[in-house]
Structures are given as structure tokens and as C-alpha cells.
Amino acid sequence: MGSPFRVVALTANRAGLLQEGVIYASRISVTRALSAHSTRQFSSKQPRRPSRQNQFHPSQTSSKSFHTSQPLRSNSKFKYGISASFSAKDERYNPDTNVFNFNPYNRILARRKDKRTRPRSGQDAFFISRVNNTPDVAFGVADGVGGWADSGVDPSDFSHGICDYMAHAAYTYNDAEWSGGMGARALMQKGYDDIRSDGSVLAGGSTACVAIARGDGGLEVANLGDSGFVQLRLNAIHNASEPQTHAFNTPYQLSIVPEKVLAQAAAFGGEQLMDFPKDANVSHHQLRHGDVLVFASDGVWDNLSSQQILKIVSRIMLGARAWKLTGDGVKVGNRLRQFIMADDGSREEIPSLQSFLAVGITAEAKAASMNTKRDGPFAREVQKYYPYENWSGGKVDDICVVVAVVCEEGK
User: Fold this and answer.
1) Is the residue at 28 inside a domain?
2) Taking Cα atoms as reference points, which of 162, 207, 164 lies closest to residue 301?
3) Which of 45, 163, 312, 389 has its CA 20 to 30 A from that of 321?
4) Rounded to an integer, what distance in angstroms lies between the CA atom of residue 317 and that of residue 290?
5) How far apart are CA 50 and CA 65, in angstroms?
């Protein structure tokens, strides 16, 4: 039986089919599906396959429901259910395979140099890692600067590489080696230093939006460029990042620029863009039980507004009763903790509420990017500043989404 979350996530796409043969949204009533699900619990009886972030194994969401096992034991007050979904711009989106469910038991090794082990997210990349044995979790997205392809450089090497290095730095975190502890900007700096020291990546660049969610409910975000995040709370936008750009469609970007390129730029009176982690906007937030965090590349923000993302998330959360309507407004449902629990390591990875939120947003962004009639945020910006371009519809691009659902112990 398919999970009711799958129905909710796919029907969140108002455009229906993303592309002929890509996604077939079920017409089954969400209420009926959830009602049927409430009387059953499913768990996989198959042997657990190793799943490592450095060795990508997409979860199979089509035939399993979410698992309600016991969470990781720690003294932390807050826990996080985190998933990612993604789609390369030149590929069809498959919600069954283009999804990653974070398992805190996963072991994270060094950078993946074999491109076959990377998620099929194109030039976009993401990472999710626990911060060693602490209750904190580090995660983020990076969007490779496509312009490097004109110089024969694969933009994905930088974006995937810096994410791998940040994941490994968080996983191997040693307090004695970090002055003042690990913050979001410090983690971005560590990833940037490591990718610059990697002799196999000679040039490239990316934007980056990096976060550390603490066990005490604190959230620190470092955002550089036009990737970004929103914090949603009970059917409302609570916080949202602002993009950093030098000019229209020219975001701040971390870069590796060969000396030859710098010399050529100087000879012609130009300048190669090179921004640094110190230029990132850093913000601090306090999370609450039931909050939903959405981190995404500009493939999402160019095609969906924050309000549209809120509608998608609200539809799924209310449909799953993770949020519920009451006489006093929207409240957090009683079973949220069960919906987002991490696997205890003894079972195969299976879908969760956060994975269906990530799928729902990615599916809608993919549909919007290919829609030639519905103008998105990028189209409206082009029409405003460059009306002679006659741009309309969406902006086809790589898409990467990381969703975190916040759960407070005892609630």
C-alpha cells in the first residue's frame, strides 16, 4: 500500500502532472488515505542495506510508510527530522528515487570524488550530518555557478565537494580543534578551506546556505548568495533569508579562481567575483515544536515564492494532522513526534513526514520551472528590470530542497 503522505505530497502540486510520464498524482481522497493509514503501521522486513551519505542510496518511497521507532537517546530537548529532495534541470523528476532521508547513524567519510556516488541533483548539492556525538545537526545547500562550464569546468565539482567537506567536518567535530565551537559561518569557512586545498578542484564556485540546529532549539544560519531558507510556524512565515547579489542574477559566491584567470580579468580591466564566508549573512533563531525549515537553491526561489511554499507545507502538514485546525487557530498535532522519528539503525530507511514535504516542494518547483505560462519570481524580476527580454513562465534550473521538522521532547 502506498503511504498517505505520498498522496498529500503529490496532490500539493496544483499543476497536476509535472511532465508527461513523470509523476502521476493520485486522485484518492487525502482524508480517506489518512483514515485508512491510521489503523495500520508498516515496517520493512527486508535486511537493512548500508546507507551512507558519502555513498548515495535513494530511499524507496513507493511501497513503505513512515516508521515509528524509538528516537535516538540523548539529553537534548529538541530533535529534528530532516530529508532532502532534488532534481537536475535536464532530467525528469522521480520522487521515488530523488529523495534522501537523514539517518543520524550514517557514517560520513571524506569527499566523494566518484561522480556516480553523488545524488542526481546536477550542479546543486546538499549535506546533512550530525555534529559528532552532540545533539546538534548541521545541514545546508550549495548551488554551483554554471558560468564556469564555459571555461571547461564542471560546476558540480565545487558545490558537491564543499558540501562533502562540511558534512565530514561536522561528523568529525572535535571541540578542542574549533575556537569558540562550531558555528554556521565557521563550518562554511572550513568547507571552503578544504575544497580550496583539494588539488582535484582547480576552479569553480557556488552559493551556500548553511545551518546548525542545536539540541536546545537554537538555529544559526549563514547564507551567502541566492540560495536561502524559510522558517514556517503554524501556517505562517516566521523568518526568511534575503538573497545577496552583486547585480541581477549575479549572486555572492565562494570561488576558486586560477591565477591565469585573475590575470586575464585584470588585463581587460575586469574583475572576477570572489566572495568569502566572512561576507555571509549570519542570523540566529529560536525554534519551536512543530516548526518547519525549508532550505533550497535558487531553482526553488526563482520559481516559487515563500507564500507558495507555505501553502504546500500547510497542505501536507494539515492533511497529515501534523498541524491541526482548532477553534483557537492552527496547533501542532499530537503525533508529530512519531511522524518524524529517526530510524534506530536496525531497519531499512523508509519515508517520513519530512521526506514528503521535501518531495512536495521539489515537485511543485519542478512543475513551475517548466510551465511557460505561469510567471514565477524570476520572471517577474526580469519583466521589471529587462522588459524587452519578453521573459515569461518559469526558469528551468537544478532544484535542491532540504526540509527539517522540529520536535521538542515531551510534546
Assistant:
1) no
2) 207
3) 45
4) 10
5) 19
Q: What is the pLDDT of residues 130-154, one digit of tens each?
A: 999 999 999 999 999 988 888 889 9
Q: What is the pLDDT of residue 174?
A: 93
- Give me 10's grid cell: 503529490
In a domain, 50, yes or no: no
Q: Are 12 and 363 in contact (CB under 8 A)?
A: yes
Separation of alpha carbons 187 and 201, rounded Å: 19
Query: Which range has the worst mean pLDDT, 23-27, 37-41, 282-286, 302-306?
Result: 23-27
Q: What are the Cα distances from residue 403, in Å, to 8, 56, 261, 309?
A: 16, 18, 37, 11
Cα distances from 247 to residues 154, 160, 265, in angstroms, run 24, 25, 18
C-alpha cell at 293: 525549515
Radius of gyration of the chain (CA): 21
pLDDT of residue 207: 97
Q: Is residue 83 part of a domain?
A: yes
Residues in a beta bridge with 232: 237, 292
Query: Is 24 inside a domain boundary?
Result: no
What is the predicted pLDDT for the residue at 75?
A: 58
What letters, b where the CB count within 10 A reaches 16 and e where it falls short, cover 338-368? Answer: bbbbbbeeebbbbbbbbbbbbbbbbbbbbbb
Task: Specify whether the CB–CB gap between 109 and 54 falls below 8 A.
Answer: yes
Residue 154 CB: number of other CB atoms within 10 A?
16
Average pLDDT, integer, range 334-344: 76
Q: What count of Cα atoms within 13 Å lies in the side-chain half-sphere of residue 328? A: 2
| φ, ψ for residue 134, nearest 5 deg | -85, 170
Q: How many domains does the chain have?
A: 1
CATH number for 387: 3.60.40.10
Quote the domain boundaries for residue 375.
Answer: 69-408
Confidence of residue 263 (pLDDT cuts 50, 70, 90): confident
- The string over 44-69, giving b where at least 16 C-beta atoms fall within 10 Å of a residue's C-beta and e elsewhere, is beeeeeebebbeebbbebeebbbbbe
Query: How far apart, in whole angstroms, are the C-alpha atoms of residue 93 and residue 13?
Result: 13
pTM value > 0.70: yes
- The tens digit of pLDDT for each residue in 51-98 reads 333 344 333 333 333 433 333 444 569 999 999 999 999 999 999 999
What percent of the chain shows pLDDT beyond 70?
A: 78
* Interior angle at CA 125, CA 119 and CA 128, nearest 5: 85
pLDDT reported for residue 357: 97
